[in-house]
From TrEMBL, chain A:
<keyword id="KW-0731">Sigma factor</keyword>
<dbReference type="GO" id="GO:0003677">
    <property type="term" value="F:DNA binding"/>
</dbReference>
<dbReference type="InterPro" id="IPR013324">
    <property type="entry name" value="RNA_pol_sigma_r3/r4-like"/>
</dbReference>
<dbReference type="InterPro" id="IPR036388">
    <property type="entry name" value="WH-like_DNA-bd_sf"/>
</dbReference>
<dbReference type="Pfam" id="PF04542">
    <property type="entry name" value="Sigma70_r2"/>
</dbReference>
<feature type="domain" description="RNA polymerase sigma factor 70 region 4 type 2">
    <location>
        <begin position="132"/>
        <end position="182"/>
    </location>
</feature>
<dbReference type="InterPro" id="IPR014284">
    <property type="entry name" value="RNA_pol_sigma-70_dom"/>
</dbReference>
<dbReference type="Pfam" id="PF08281">
    <property type="entry name" value="Sigma70_r4_2"/>
</dbReference>
<comment type="similarity">
    <text>Belongs to the sigma-70 factor family. ECF subfamily.</text>
</comment>
<dbReference type="GO" id="GO:0016987">
    <property type="term" value="F:sigma factor activity"/>
</dbReference>
<dbReference type="InterPro" id="IPR007627">
    <property type="entry name" value="RNA_pol_sigma70_r2"/>
</dbReference>
<keyword id="KW-0804">Transcription</keyword>
<keyword id="KW-0805">Transcription regulation</keyword>
<dbReference type="InterPro" id="IPR013325">
    <property type="entry name" value="RNA_pol_sigma_r2"/>
</dbReference>
<dbReference type="InterPro" id="IPR039425">
    <property type="entry name" value="RNA_pol_sigma-70-like"/>
</dbReference>
<dbReference type="InterPro" id="IPR013249">
    <property type="entry name" value="RNA_pol_sigma70_r4_t2"/>
</dbReference>
<dbReference type="GO" id="GO:0006352">
    <property type="term" value="P:DNA-templated transcription initiation"/>
</dbReference>
Amino acid sequence: MDEQEEIKITQTYTEVEKHRVFEKEFMPYIDSMYNFAFRLTNDEDDANDLVQDTYLKAFRFINSFAEGTNAKAWLFRILKNSFINDFRKKSKEPSKVDYQDVETTYNSEEDAETTQTVDLRADTVQDLIGDEIANALNALPVDFRTVIILCDVEGFTYEEMAKILDIPIGTVRSRLHRARMLLKEKLKSYAKSLGYDVNADSMAE
Amino acid sequence: MVSEVEKIQKKTSCEHQSDCMKLVQLIVDGQATDEQIAQFKQNMDKCLPCEKGYELEKCIKETMQLKLEKKCVPSSLIDCIKKKISAL
């Protein structure tokens, strides 16, 4: 959430109402928020700090939240912006960026006309365990990791993601597409290094 | 249900793969229209790369939902947030 938007007051809750709205509308999402923060930071302490910052900020700006609207997307937007604006700079572990990946993917992100395919079998992916999936996800640059988490783990729609990330829906689509291409490459590398047969007879039944 | 004979007759290369994979993304994300879903299903019955592409994308999405560890927020964090909110 931009500071400008955060201070756009649309409600005037009493103190009692503020606490009620906070408890009823925001607290149910704290597990999702914590998992999102952990996936962004890759560190439990950092995730704690990020979630705490987000919830305190949500309370501070609660008058810009209309009860009954999409609290989850509102909170995710605050968390994402807190991560970018305040947290990314001081993170203990700067994201493990493969700069070649970033260069390749960003250069073509908004022009996803050329679709490469990654020769990877669905049953190979099914054989991977959770840690291997997490490693592949964590190896992605944070902006790509973010769209996959929002879409696949948290189930946000493209429209919600566009609002959370403050980007057009078309960019959500193309970024997601690129993110998934990269993820498939990472999954394929992990599977290969673990001795899985990743692409033999991939077109055969 | 597609018979074995029909399976063998499926195309093994797709001339529209770029467009088909964009459609696959919309479908697995639940963002496609009924018309787009019907269009893709019709195509998938005849095209092996599209069928494989759909299976892979669907599998990866399900894997992300089911296999990524879901951490529980520490109760100490909840307590800390509530304490700070009460003090404001």
